[in-house]
Amino acid sequence: MIENRKYIVIGVFCLVGLVYLLRLFYLQILDDSYSLESSSNSIKRIIEIPYRGQIYDRSGKFIVYNTPVYDLYVTPKKVQIADTAAFCRLMELERSEFDSIMNNAKSYSYVKPSLFLRQLSKEDFARIQDALVDYRGFEHVTSSMRTYPAHTLANALGYVSEISKKQLDEQETPYYRQGDYIGRSGLEQQYESVLRGQRGVKFVMQNVHQVVKGSWKNGAFDSLAVAGKNLYTGIDVEIQQYADTLMQNKVGSVVAIEPSTGQILAMVSAPTYDPNSLSSRFFSKSYAKLAKNPYKPLINRPVMASYRPGSTFKLIQAMVALQDGAVAPSSIFSHAGSPMKCHCNRSGRLNLAGAVQYSCNPYFYHVFRRLLYNNNERNTFKASAMGLHHWHDMVSKFGIGQKLGVDLPGELKGSLPDADYYNRMYGENHWKFSTVYSLSIGEGELLINPLKMANVAAIVANRGWFYTPHIVSGIGKPGEGIDPKYLEKHEVGIDPRHFEILAEGMQGAVEHGTTTMAANIPGITICGKTGTSQNKKGKDHSIFVAFAPRENPKIAIAVFVENAGWGGIAAASVASLVIEKYIKRRVDNHALDKKVKESNYLPAVTLPKKPAPKKYEMPKDSAAKPLIVKTIPQQPTPVPVEPKSLASRPVTTNGN
Amino acid sequence: MLYIACVLMGWLNVYAAVYSPEIQTNLFDMSTNAGKQLMWIGTTVLLIIAILVINYRFWDTFAFVIYGATILSLLLVLVAGSNINGSRSWFKFGGFSIQPAEFAKLATALALARYIDYPNVNLTKLKDQLWCAGIIALPAVLIIASNETGSMLVFASFIIMLYREGLPGVYPLIAIVIVTLFILTLIVPKLFLFGGILALGILVFFLTPRYQRSFQNVMVIGITAVAMIAIVAGVDFFVNSVLQKHQQNRIKVLINPAADPLGAGWNVTQAKIAIGSGRLQGKGFLEGTQTKLDFVPEQSTDFIFCTIGEEHGFIGSLIVVCLFVFLLCRIVLLAEKQRTRFARVYGYSVAGIIFFHLMINVGMTIGLMPVIGIPLPFFSYGGSSLWSFSILLFIFLKLDSRRVGMFTR
User: Fold this and answer.
1) Residue A161 in domain
2) CATH number of the domain that residue A582 is part of
3) What is the tens place of the pLDDT at every residue in A343-388?
4) A41 vs B273: CB contact, 8 Å cut-off?
5) Which ipTM score applies to this complex?
6) What Gene Ontology cellular-component terms does the record carry (chain B) (predicted)?
7) Which SS3 state, helix, strand or coil, does residue B76 take?
């Protein structure tokens, strides 16, 4: 019987073997989590980040290029620092900063390198590198930093910074990782996919100590990094810089367009900042400072700010009315019957060109009235609705009330009210011309941004067509690769002959108009139109749109100066100087140049409400003093320059 | 044949385990473990030839002498051995080390066989049981003294042989019950266990036919239940106070490997990842990333099975496990055919030892056994282990050849 025990023994052997095989079957075949863990264990993906594309201006000058910088990494386990104080002096660090960096690094890993100092400049690094021989445990990695040699165009360019948590979570295909850089606004954001290039991926095997032991599968799955494409823009850096200086101590925008191509020559958003400040290792400090600035230097006003177009809108009204046949070039309207007052003192004596020249409010009241009632409908309510509908269609073609499609993020649609809008507001057949007449002079429910107004100037300059304004004129190579929509000519549906009347009036406005003597530059026929954008919150905004020269125009421009008060002087001065600079490549009118640069229209800033200290009462006028903006030197004369003759006039009406 | 297959596969796997993509080593390079293993294999062949040449009577006759010599060397190593990984159990000769504990198994097997071979020995008798226990315990205690708990545990494998030779089935049963209780205690809350044991005892009592409910039998049931409860209660004390820290951890890791994956659980977790990532066909020879890049510790010795699992997948593991089970069955069947009790006892001991190594070694890499540092026979790198297993096996083959020879004669 005892011999039978051999079967039990064999049975036990087989049973254990079977159990082990089942377990192996489970581990190796059924459960695939181990397989995944193994690759994350030993195979590491190393991303090679290519150089970001650089940005050029229209003459090939750099606007943005990459400077090599050095990121210093520390491996805590290897660190040997004999004299920490000397080391901190070398690194220009406080002892506390050094400690906190080291503690962070240690809590991350003792054996893996952590970032110690980011974006050391070549000069800094050269200084440190020699001394670094004496210290163990530090190594550097070259990376690159955006550098802006022209120190301008910050708002349109945008900036590059570490990707946010939200962006990381929302990306459709997982491309970015924590700590990656991404274009965060402006062109950097718009052209992110082009600028960033294509990352290289390298798979390497590493052992348990994270030491790389060679490439995986001999690099069969590796890919090379492809550098980002360069952007070629239509920006004229000299003009841009000059416009910057003119706009100092002002809030507003300058947008200059080359009418024949739609390329943007200059795009100033004031106040602005030096783009380099958001590119250094002090990014977060600089950013916080800019974000707190009450003048909001981070927004790109040419596309992100909305204004009422004021009298500049009369250009569109005139074109639409002529095309519609509502008025003739020779039509004359008197001031009578208009609820709006006028400064022109030429009642009943102005034809259309004259009305543009002197910006006669009552004239355009009548023009708009004719426009709305220029149909067979007898009922004034219904006729107004029909007329407004028609008017809306015609004005829309100028890009008003919609996004133009500029290659910048954050463009505002603005507002162009249609019949439905007023139906909702007042009820159908409960409104008519007399309800909406303020549209006639660019007030009421209209909202535009400076870019659109510059485009209107370009349309008049081109006598009836435009290319969608754009900054980038070439991707990779000059003149190549841009979105075909920027090469598509848009007709606005106005007969070219009508524009001559308008140009006549605009030239007159600059040369003989009451308000715009400041814009007259000898030797260049500038056609321009002033405007006042009513501002309920404070002083009105000064607007000027222009193109020059009258024949074969080279530049179309819109200038907005916020809170510069009634009349177009402030804006017109800036515009004329920019035009002169662009066409003559120099400025002869030094007096005007000096005056503009010195004038200060910074509005009073109301500080965000803080609980006032209880010890003493805040003087009431303290909030009215302009706050000093750090980015732009404040001029000592805060008094806005305004012609006395105009300032003393009643400001109850809005034409000029 | 089976033996040659095992050794060759072991050698190639040792090579794979130490293979590094940076340094293109030669398979025969003496400076690597694989090269050394080749040398060990060479010397083993000489040993095998020697064993086959030596008369079979030699082992029979000198069994106790060999046993005595081994005990001496175990004593000696405690004094003169060199310290490797915290255990003073190695003799160092130049670049090579020899572990007498490996040979102690062989010597003990021979001594046991010799003792049981005495005609009047009956393992149902307590006296003979104690003698056998003594023969096993002496080297085991010495090995514990040299801090090689793993090798000591192997001596438990003799219970298989003793069972075959007539040891009452109660002993393995008790062993199984103790181990089961031990594991249950670590997993199940103690109160449940206490309740379960009591319930079991009462159940057994009532299931016993009335006429058998003698006072003696009731006492047996009662004492068993009390002993079981005592074991359960004592497990905590044993785990926390008797075992060393790393041994405690190994047991805890077995119960819950996820508790400390980077610390105590590292070995097991990484071993499982290595084996699991092999899938059906494996990553291919020399392609194992886990084992080659040192994620699995001791990948050429105790964790050699990971290399097999990772590089050759389930198919490779299947072949290896089947190979071993086949080898074991073959040894058992051969042992049964032996004319002499000596040869049979010895054959069973060999099977038991190999089985125990296989069970523990493979079991720990797949997370079924606690981590105990004993090698996989014929596979793991190491001269002592290869030598001792080879000698172990070939002495048995020599004894067997005599039987075959008797038939043919």
Assistant:
1) no
2) 3.40.710.10
3) 777 777 888 888 888 888 889 998 999 888 888 888 888 888 888 9
4) yes
5) 0.78
6) cell division site; plasma membrane
7) helix
